[in-house]
Amino acid sequence: MNPNAPIPNPLLPACPHRFGLADPAIERLLKDWLLLAAAFTGTQVALALRDETGVWYLSSSGLAPGQMAALEWTLAGGAPGHPFWILPDQEGALLAMETLPLQDEYGRGIGDLYVLSPTPHALTPDHRAGLRLVVGHVQSILAAGRHQLETRATPRAPAATSFVPGLVHELGSFVFGISANLDAFEARFAGMEDVSRYGATIRKSLDRMNAFIDELRDYGDPQRYSWLETELDALLKGVATYEAAVAREGNLELQCKIEGVLPAIMADEQGLRAAFTHLIHFMLKQEEPGGRVILQVEVRSEGERVDICGHLDGSSTRMKNVDLARLFEPFYFRTSGLGRLTLPVARRVFEYHGGSLTACPGPEGGVRIQFMLPASLPYPLRSAGRP
């Protein structure tokens, strides 16, 4: 035992709820690799997977329940310093000697592999090489089954690759049939009283349905208008200038703060511009006269990875009763001036670019929408596998 280790906390708080993997076969493969890593290193090994909400999956090579609870509690407090101790109430303490980061195929951090031991000791070069192989295999397993990862903290709709395109086709056929019959009806009874008036009402409803089908098509698979090098700095300033008219009309303040110089990114410029426009428009529509919306963007670097990160802050408290974790869920929230799927489509566009889009409480009781875009990708990403 390290005499300088922190004193155990005898009253560990309840551990946060853990989520599992949708495919038991993938989970068995991961556990097999953890057991293999533990066997050839003579240590204990634990795997933690993270998303924007924190640790959502935790497994080990055979830690006791109290040790697992202590590890989970330690990780729930944020990324600990390395190395670090886990100190359960009853079972033996363990030192996390090594932390090996895990990344997805786009270079985004998705978790860590921890090498644990009751006493500090050095790993051999062969051990380290073997652990790197284990990390590579774990990353490959997760990449192959990423569409099956279950993150119930951010509910998702049925898979876009099958359900949504089929629904778009069926609804489109249905609307086309009604429209064709309405054309024939109006031609046949054009001279009858009120035909044109009722026909115009029906066409208005069909137009709304067609607009919804277009949104649904984008939600299922964001449209690829072009994939070119894009100056995000100019794009954001252009969107802010365009939405300034909405701000003036509502007696609102709109600020755009860009820290430093943003690197050019490979992007679908038209889709990304529409997503940012809809987000700023949405935030402005939540404000009362005299309110403000602030867009702040900066570049963040971690090793060789460079991300463009930013947030939109609103001052209004009108959304205090909204479950912000569900804000981008289809049909959960709708506001005037936006379609039924505008916000979910915006998230799909960010995911299509390898980024993310989330909402959380902001300063002074307002709302904050956070986003991230990778600064460089060698090729356009496929559409996100999960809507």
Describe this structure in words.
With 387 residues, this protein is of the alpha+beta class. 38% of the residues lie in helices and 22% in strands. It has eight helices and twelve strands. It has helices at residues 24-41, 65-76, 125-144, 163-188, 195-220, 232-249, 269-285, 342-352; strands at residues 44-51, 54-60, 84-86, 94-103, 109-117, 228-230, 253-258, 265-267, 292-302, 305-314, 356-361, 367-374. The strands form three sheets. Strands 2-1-5-4-3 form a five-stranded antiparallel β-sheet, sandwiched between helices. It is elongated. 30% of the residues are buried.
Question: Radius of gyration, rounded?
Answer: 26 Å
Beta-strand percentage? 15-25%
Structural class: alpha+beta
Instruction: Give the overall average pLDDT.
Output: 79
Distance N terminus to C terminus? 48 Å
Let me know the number of strands: 12
Helicity level: 25-40%
Shape: elongated
The low-confidence runs, each spanning 5 or more residues with pLDDT under 50, are 1-19, 147-160, 378-387
Instruction: Please provide the ordered H/E string of secondary-structure elements.
Output: HEEHEEEHHHEHEEHEEHEE
| Largest beta-sheet details | 5 strands, antiparallel
Number of helices: 8
Strand order of the largest sheet: 2-1-5-4-3
How are the SSEs placed, and which strands pair?
Blueprint (H helix, E strand, L loop, with lengths): L23 H18 L2 E8 L2 E7 L4 H12 L7 E3 L7 E10 L5 E9 L7 H20 L18 H26 L6 H26 L7 E3 L1 H18 L3 E6 L6 E3 L1 H17 L6 E11 L2 E10 L27 H11 L3 E6 L5 E8 L13
Parallel strand pairs: 7-9
Antiparallel strand pairs: 1-2, 1-5, 3-4, 4-5, 6-8, 9-10, 10-12, 11-12
